[in-house]
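Quick entry between incubations.
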Amino acid sequence: MMKNLKMSIAAMLMLTISFTNAQEKEKMKMDHSKMDHGKMMHKKGDAKTEAILSDYFSLKNALVADETKKAALAGTKLVASFKAFDAGSYSKEQQEELADIIEDATEHAEHIAKSELGHQREHFKTLSKDVTDLVAITGTKNTLYEQFCPMYEGGSTWLSTSNEVKNPYYGSKMVTCGKVQKEINN
Amino acid sequence: MKVVKKIALVLLIVFVGIQFIPTSRNQSDTVPSTDFMRVNKVPENIQKKLEGSCYDCHSNNTQYPWYNKIQPVAWLLEDHIKEGKAELNFNEWDDLSNRRKNSKLKSIISQIEDGEMPLSSYTLIHGDAIFSDTEKQEIIKWMTQLKDSL
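Done. Structure below.
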């Protein structure tokens, strides 16, 4: 009888311990997934970032095709997308950096909206740097390719959704000039 | 004849009348510590050229010749200065981040290179504001160095 009681107590204790343990583990797991979730939100970009990128790529494609008017239109759209961007969920430091990037990028997009092809390409160079820096903070759903043309203005980069090189700085004059420099995969 | 006289009289009244409408002057006695010349080591000849050719519309202090105090010239000028300062204010240079400085320098270089700045409406009156080819090259070279050093 005594032995039985002892055993039951021991069993109860074991059960309690393993139960708390499991709960603890569950909690940890939850904490983990919460962390991952937060990270994902920042590392996978959001709808506003994707909107900026989509306008940026229409601009890039217009420049590849030597189409000034389409590029200007994309520039106007970009101005609106930059304005709609919400940095609320980022750290203070990141917010400052993002505000700086967006102020600069907006100015270039505004100029692209009202310039001729040559000037559009000049502004596109700095704009590409801004958008690359932006994506480094926000992340994006898709894999992007940073491409590099050594000839344009002492070497210039741009972003593309494809690893096939189509040069936005020279368009039809030298459309295949350049190479993939980096794969952006976050 | 009578009609012409009447029109002339009306125009005269309007001309005198608009002189009484106040315009804001872009003038300041102090050069802030953020001024382009105070944060960069600018060679004297380039400093003189920038101040003489750019600062009227791209700083907080315009040198007003007498005819710029007369309407409607003063209005025109006020507008140009407002626009110019919004685009670039040399007095507030050091308030800009390196990213912004880089973009501004690129624009300065490209505008001078293409002869878009100083504006032709400005150099029409300020003949000495025009950049000679040598001056252009000097300034572009110096500005490019500054941009690369950021």
